[in-house]
Amino acid sequence: MVRTTSARLLMATVSMLALCVSAHAQDATDETPKTTTDQTSDDAAQPVSERTIVLDAISVTASKTGTSVIDAPASISIVDQEELQRRQPDNLGDILRGMPGVEVSGGPRSTVQMPIIRGLTDNRVVIRVDGARANLNVGHKGGLFIDPEVVKQVEVYRGPASTMQGTGALGGVLALTTVDANDMLEPGQNIGARVKAGYTSVDHGMTWNGMAYGRPTDNSDILVSVTRKNTDDFEAGNG
Question: Domain limits of the chain?
């Protein structure tokens, strides 16, 4: 009889403990949403400038990264300022001479010269000067006349490039970058000038170039270039 009473008492004790644990778990579950709700209310009450907002991570990738010409997935030729000073070109043809797949039409007259890239020219080759397109297919289509003295760098892209350079770049792209005052001024110099003269024997031509440049402020610069060229008639090689 004693054993039966003890067994019943033990079972009653275990049942009470189970009820206590269940009630405690229920209280903890009920309190969790309340804490979250209170925290949300507190965040809403704070000024916007004091809130901490965590955004998802954003990954940005691009293909226009600095790379060498030999590693670029395109056929590109570049003539930099140092090479231009060494060559001392008289016109566009002198700059592009020797580039594979590139010729210049119009003969030695610099006012009518046009690039030919892989056999294509005119509206099938895009010409850009400082990023702006220079050969628009409207109105009178003149040649590309630019004084080599003001050219800083020449880039030639051979092959279709319309997706990057705009419509018409089936043959390729000729991109010219001009100099600015910072390219001409020596360190510590704010103003300068230069005068050059040249002579061509084939047409007894004389060329004069005067350039003045300065940097009035740290955020601005000025460059003015004037070129004059006089030539006589010449006889082509084929008569």
Answer: 72-179, 182-230
Query: What is 135-172 written as a DSSP string?
Result: --SSS--------GGGEEEEEEEES--HHHH-TTTTSE
Query: Quick one: which of 202, 92, 225 has its CA closest to 148?
Result: 92
Distance (Å, whole) CA 207 – CA 92:
15
User: Which fold, 72-179?
Assistant: Ferric Hydroxamate Uptake Protein; Chain A, domain 1 (2.170.130)
What's the pLDDT tens digit per position in 135-188? 765 555 556 778 888 999 999 999 887 767 777 788 899 999 999 999 999 888
Q: How many Cα atoms sit within 13 Å of 66 on the Cβ side?
A: 0
Whole-number Å distance between alpha carbons of 134 and 237: 31
Question: Quick one: DSSP state of residue 123?
Answer: G
CB atoms within 10 A of CB 190: 13
pTM (2 d.p.)? 0.62
Beta-bridged to residue 195, according to DSSP, are 210
Return the beta strands (E) in 17-135 as ranges: 75-79, 102-105, 114-117, 125-129, 132-133
